[in-house]
Amino acid sequence: MKIDILLGLQWGDEGKGKIVDAISPQYDVVARFQGGPNAGHSLEFNGKKHILHLIPSGIFHPDKINIIGNGVVIDPAVFKKETENLGIPPDELVKRLVISSRANLILPGHRILDAAYENTRGDSKIGSTLKGIGPAYTDKIARNGLRAGEIFSTDFRELYNQRFRNHMSILKNHDFSFDPEEYEADWFEGVEIMKKFRIVNTEYFINDLVLKGRKILAEGAQGTMLDIDFGTYPFVTSSSTVSAGACTGLGISPGHVGEVFGIFKAYCTRVGSGPFPTELTDDTGNTLRNKGNEFGSTTGRPRRCGWLDIPALKYAIMINGVTRLFMTKSDVMSGFDNVRVCTSYMWENRECEEIPFDSRKIQPVYTVLPGWKEEIREMRNFGDLPVNLKGYIEFIEYHTGVPVTMVSVGPDRRETIFRNQ
Ligand code: GDP
Ligand code: IMO
Ligand code: MG
Predict the structure, then answer these.
(1) CB neighbours of 338 closer than 8 A, spacing ≥ 6?
(2) Which residue's alpha carbon is nearest to atom 5 within ligand 2?
């Protein structure tokens, strides 16, 4: 049995949470492979909206196993808050959720360092969610991290104190005031909550499930354009958001990967700083933001909005080996006379389709397509969609060479159209 991967092709917030929840019934297991509480995955059903940060988006389906993989960084304080607010009884939750012993912990010092580093960046701030992601992954790679499996050690407090002293000595060089105790109480309470869960070597667990023929869906966080290697560096996150990240973040071999579902919005958004070639700073951008409710799920910040960027989409498809495209927020695009799609860039006075190494100076070249006015949230069949929206989808398929097999027309689980191909 193969493991399918669902991941974002843009700058995050493509609707991963909603779609993972919607397709979870087809799987036995949902596993997060990277990122941490910087993620905000929203899903809606029965008139209620939930936002998940660390917990995989299959958690609301009673008979599914959810795994927080080794590639994820876990903040116990966030874990505590999130598990308490799910509305799932604790004894039921411990059955549904398994944590990798190798997942690194985000320590209180990491969150403080995140803010201190952003402070030193002056005009070139990354716009981090300030959840401690960068410093936690830095410590992991520098081999200074603390891992989930260590919380059971008798000397855990001493291991923690060593890291704490380290972080405080770095912070001495920053003009930054903070009260670590304020963070610590919650953090240690979170550690106690984590101890109630199965913390195991999930790489064995997952490979065993594969051998038993269980269907597994790997859920990405962030998006390809925020990937540490292939994103718009340095305005990126600190993990591998691409399909290869699912292998290292879960301990599965590339040979076990099946479908790669690439999810993208019918337009583009970005929260935080960094290049965004198709950004609209005019009324059209405001219309997309208001209609699409484009405000960050984790930080509440307004998201920057712009037209669809096909060269960036093709780049993401190439890096990830995307086999099927899922398009979300199609409903938000209703109402325009014309819509624009970026099909190439102008860079150093020449037209190109490749994303240059320094993507700050590229100008989008647009193709104008006819828009559609119909409201589509009630539609459930692909055939019923407006003819111009179907033309828009065909245009994307023509340029990318990958079929669009799912179209999302609203935030609710039911507002999803699967297309038989
Ligand atoms: P994620 O991080 O990729 O899971 O995406 P977010 O949850 O951060 O952001 C996506 C937002 O769009 C959430 O508020 C979703 O409820 C909402 N959403 C998802 N799909 C659709 C859709 O097809 N139409 C509309 N209008 N909203 C959607
Ligand atoms: P989901 O999983 C959108 C952005 C931040 C910032 C940059 C680095 O919900 O799609 P970090 O906190 O990782 O140091 O921030 O990455 N960012 C996201 N943008 N969706 C996310 O996750 C994001 N996670 C991080 O805004 O620009
Ligand atoms: Mg999000």
Answers:
(1) 368, 369, 370, 371
(2) 128
